[in-house]
Amino acid sequence: MMPSTETRAQFPKSIFFIVGNEFCERFNFYGLRAVLVLFFTNVLVMGPDRATALYHGFIMLCYFTTLFGAIISDGFIGKFRTILYLSLVYSCGNIILSLTAMRPLGAPEIAGPMVGLLLIAIGTGGIKPCVSAFGGDQFHPDQHKAIERYFSLFYFAINAGSLLSMFITPILRGDVQCFGDDCFPLAFGVPAMLMILAVAIFLLGKPHYKIEPAHGNPIGLFCRCIVHALRRRFRSDGTETRSHWLDHASDRFTTEEIADVRDVLRVLLLFVPLPIFWALFDQQSSRWTLQAIQMNGSLGPLGSLKPDQVSVLNPVFILLMVPLFDLLYAALARCGINFRPLQRMLCGMCLGALAFVAAAFLQLHVQSTAVSVGAGSSRLTVLNGAECHLNVSSTLVAPEQSASVLLPAGNHTLWCDSRPIAVQLASRQSASLVLLANSWTLVPDSLSPPKDGMFSVSLWQRANHSVLLLPAKLSFPPQDNFSAPALLAPGRYNVSTNGTLTDCVLSGLASAVQRVLVLENEHCVVAEVRPANQVHVLLQTPQYLLLTAGEVLFSVTGLSFAYSQAPSSMKAVLQAAWQMTVAFGNLIVIIVAETKVIEDQAAEFFLFAALMAADIALFGVMALRYQYRVRTQDDDSDGMPSNASQVALLAAPAKTYS
C-alpha cells in the first residue's frame, strides 16, 4: 500500500533514536581519538614515532573491521543485532581504556589500554557500515524527501558530535587534574559514558524499528565469483575461449552477476592510488598534533588553545565547505563547465599535497626558532645571587642578574671576581648555575616545552618566611634547591614574601620555562631557561584549510562516483573497498614512522607531499583512460542520496562521517 503524501513527508519515530545514538557514538569516538596521541606520549611514555605508528594502527583496524561488520550484517544477523552486539563490545572497550588510564590501578601498563582500543576498533568499525543504512530501512521507498531530510539530520548529528568532543575532551584532559597529572581517565571516561548512553538510546527505540532480516552477502558473492573464475581459468586446458576471464565462473554464477563483478573491478582499479590521500589526511591527529605541541597556543585573555584542540578546525571547515562546494558545482554547471568526479578527486589530491608542503615549511620555521643545543655544545643559565660579578665566556653577570650562554662541552672555570668556579658540561647539556654568597649549585635543565602551551616556573626560596606566587597562591617553603616545576596559565605573576608584594614580577609566556631565586633580602633573580615558543599554533590554519578542501573534493566525490558507476547489487562491495583504502593509507604512515626512513619531521612532510605528487600523476593517467558508465534510473533506484552533504555520510573517511 502506498503511503499518503502527508505520511511520505513524516519521519518515523525510530529515526530520532538512531540519530541520537549516532551523535553520542561520534562524540565518544572523536573525543578519545583527539587525545590518544598525547596519551601515548605523556602517559605510556612513547616516542613520537612509536606513538604515531600505534595511533595509525588503531585507525587502520577501525577501518579494516568495517568489512567484518558488513559481512555479518548482510549475510548473517542483520543490521539491528550487528549494531547492538558490537556496540556492547565497543562500550566494554571504552570502560577498559578509561580504567586502565588510572595510575592508582597500576597504570600505565600498555596491555590494558591496548585491549580497550582493540575492542573499540572492532565495535566502531563493525557498526560503521550499518547505522546510516539501518536508518534508511525505516522509510518507505517512496519517501524521497523524508530520506533526504534524514540524511541531512544524520550528517548534522555526526558533525555536532565530533566537533563538540574534539573541543571538550582536550579540556577535560588538560584543565582537570587526576592523581597530580593530566586527567586522561576523565577524558576517556566522559566519552565512554556517552557510548553507554548511545546503546541505551538505541535499545529504547526497539519497539519502533522496522527490522529487516539479513538478505544475502554481496561481498561474499563478489569474492566467491572471482575465486571460482580464477580457479577454473588456471585449471582449464586452454581449449575454451572466453571474452573475459570472469566468464570462467559462468557454470556457477549468472551472466548478470558476472557482469556486475566485472563492472566493480573497473572501479576498484581506480581505488589503487587512493590510500596515499588517507595517509596524509589521517595525520591531523598524529603528526600535526605533535607539531602543535612545539608551538605557541596562547589566545591572550581567552586562555590558550591546546595542541589536541587544533584539529577541531577540520569539522568546522567541513560544515562550511560542503554547502559552499555544492553551490560551486551548481554555478559551474550553469556556466556549461562539466567538473567531472575524477577531476574533482584529482583537485582534492593536489590540495592534500599542498597542505603537506605548507606543513613542511611551517615545521622548518618552528625548528628554526626552537631552543636547542647541538652536538659538542652546552647551554649554561646563570642566576647570580652573590655579591660579585661572574665572568662567563666574556659575558659579565652582575649581582642579582641572570644570563644564558652557549659554551663548548667540557670543563670550564668561571670567575666570580677572584673566586674560581669549576663546572663540567656534557655535550647537548643544558644546566642552571645558582651562585650564592658562600656556595654554588649546578642544576640540570630540560628544554622540553611545558604541555598545552602552559608556563612553567621553579622557585628556590632562601628567605626564612612565607613566599607566595600570586594570583596562583602557590606557596614555597625555604629549601636548598629548586621546587618541582609548577605549570601555570600564561600571564603576569607577582612574588609575595611574608604577605607583602615584592618588586619581583614574572611575565609568563606560553611554553616558557623560568627559574626564580628568592634571596634572603627578599629580592629575586629570574632566569628564562627556555624562551616561549614564538610560532603561533594558528599558523596551522592554512594546512587545515587546504586539507579540508581536498577532503570535500576527494572524499565526498569519491564514493558518490563509485556508486554511480557500480550496479546496485554491488554498492556494498564498493563501500567496503572505500573503507579499505582508508585502512591501507594508515598502514603507509605506520611503515614510514616505524622504519624511521627520515628523522627530520619537515623532511617527512615533504616526503608525503612528494608521494602524493607521484600518486596524482598515476591517478591522472588512469582518470584520462577511464570511460564513464551512464546507468539507468532503474539500476540506481536504491534510494541513495544525490547531493554532497548526503553522500558525505557514506564517503566517510577518517573523521566527520559514519
Describe this structure in words.
The radius of gyration is 30 Å and the shape is elongated. By secondary structure, the protein is an alpha+beta fold. The strands form five sheets. A four-stranded mixed β-sheet has the order 6-3-9-10, with no helix packed on it. It contains 17 helices and 18 strands.
Topology:
Elements: H1 5-8, H2 14-43, H3 48-100, H4 111-127, H5 131-137, H6 144-174, E1 177-178, E2 181-182, H7 184-204, H8 218-235, H9 255-271, H10 275-281, H11 287-293, H12 313-334, H13 341-369, E3 377-384, E4 390-392, E5 395-397, E6 402-408, E7 410-416, E8 419-425, E9 429-435, E10 440-444, E11 455-461, E12 467-470, E13 474-476, E14 486-488, E15 491-497, E16 500-508, E17 513-518, E18 524-530, H14 541-565, H15 571-595, H16 601-625, H17 644-651
Parallel strand pairs: 3-9, 11-17
Antiparallel strand pairs: 1-2, 3-6, 4-5, 4-7, 7-8, 9-10, 11-14, 12-13, 12-15, 15-16, 17-18
Short description:
53% of the residues lie in helices and 15% in strands.
Question: Which keywords apply here?
Answer:
single chain, 658 residues, alpha+beta, 4-stranded mixed β-sheet, 4-stranded antiparallel β-sheet, 17 helices, 18 strands, disordered C terminus
Class by alpha and beta content: alpha+beta
Could you tell me the strand content as a percent range?
5-15%
SS elements, strand count: 18
Low-pLDDT runs of 5+ residues are: 636-658
Mean pLDDT, rounded to whole units?
84
Q: Tell me, what's the shape?
A: elongated
What characterizes the major β-sheet? 4 strands, mixed
| Biggest β-sheet: strands ordered side by side in the sheet | 6-3-9-10
Percent of residues in helices: 40-55%
